Amino acid sequence: MRPGFAQIDWGDYSQTFPDKALDKPSTVGLILAVRRGNDSFWNQQDDNHAFDNIHRDAAFRHLRPQSIIFRPTFDTAQAHFFLHGVNAKNAVRYQYQVIDYTTGRMIVAWQSVVQFTDSALTRQSALPQMAYLGGYTAPLGHTLVVDVRRTDNQRIIGTAMVGWVPIKPSVSRVYTSKNVAAFLRKLQYPWAKDTTQALPDQASGKLVLSATDNNLILLLNATIYAKKQVQYELVRDDKGSNTWRDNEYDNSFIWLTDFLPGSYRLRIRYTAQPQHVTEFRFRVAPAWYQSGAFKVAVALVATVGLGAVVLVVLLVRQKRKGREEVAKRTKLQLELKAIYAQLNPHFVFNALSSIQGLINRNDVKGANQYLTDFARLMRQSLTNANREMIPLNEEIQLLTTYLRLEQLRFGFQVQIVLDATINSYDTDMPALLLQPLVENAVKHGVAQKAEMGLVAVHFSQVEDALIARISDNGNGLPEDSPVSGFGLKLTRDRIKLLNDLNPAQVIELTVSTGQPTGTNVTVRFNHWFA
User: Fold this and answer.
1) Separation between Cα atoms, residue 136 and residue 526, nearest integer Å
2) What CATH number should be reported for the domain whose range is 171-286?
3) pTM exceeds 0.85
């Protein structure tokens, strides 16, 4: 059989492997790759009985090494297995098998390795060529086992397991207008403990909302990153529904507003397992002007009270419209703060990865300098945590500190230019808006060019607009390659919310790429100096 090559988008998967398995290119160790979207449900999965059974299965454990890697997964996507340290030159020394542990069925009997990672995956993963053992899926509740053995002594040297775990949405907390302030604090500071008391009637089927309570927020016991991961439908008085729809927020809650009186069934499901539906029931009490007694009274005094009734209805509608506008603006500001809160851990993760890279190269001096600048950058970030707008000069200082950090690791050149016509102390801009764009220029542009790389940031004024242009001399991106990334996605979402909050000063983000001219990112702040 001729060797074949395997390819997945490495960045779309999270990997599990034994400790120190990747320390040396020659170290042989299994790598299990599962789609990243599965990470959302780890904190709500029940104990997996398959793994408990394995610990009690002496015969199974006796034939295998002590260190067995295990990973749960939650959708029907394939789990992929790679064998680090094994390539086309030494593959003849190893064999693998695949077993459905739940049923005992042999999926792949012992066979030789004939597939390997191609050059594209090797570049993505930054790992040497590896053996590819295939991608597999199984029904929910099943667990697959992949074993690897040496051909000379038939001894199993590595075992990896993946279990398809059933899940359904779980509501951990319910908020209404009575305690919406506690929810806002929880969203702004998700790591803080919620000390508020749960509503006494928050259990499904017992919650009753007054006619003036226009907010119902259900907090899910999952870490949701995208709207499409959660779907719901709302049924009123069992008279049909508004059909299944994606959630409105890239977060772990469902926020419902503006109810008519009646009994409601809110049905929730995850798109990963749409067959598992959670149902939450609640009731909305009628307003006083919707009661039967009031309608009879209005009919008796219709001639005299018609004008008064019209006035009351107009006032109620006006107040409701005002509440809707306030609620809309509050939700926009809330989503903006939630996105900003996600940027901080995103940046800290990348910064710590850079420090790890310096330590791994035994660059103690560079690591110490990096930590000093990193501390300064964190202090600047904490100072700006509760400020929506900061002066331009502070944003430039933050970018300068960040680029100096990355220079210690990659050695590229930096240019930051501010036109003389701009007063950076009197010009404000959204805090930390440009840092993810500069980070993209470093990580995806000049990281591999060392001293030949150049990242340039130029601030200029065109009529009444502020222009921020970020460019690099990297290899650029092909025309058919999507411009993506977690930081860039958060920046786009944040700009959209800023434009919704302030339509008079629209912010525009454009990205131009090409071979081999690098990448140019332009942020235009319209009417900024008006």
Assistant:
1) 51
2) 2.60.40.10
3) no
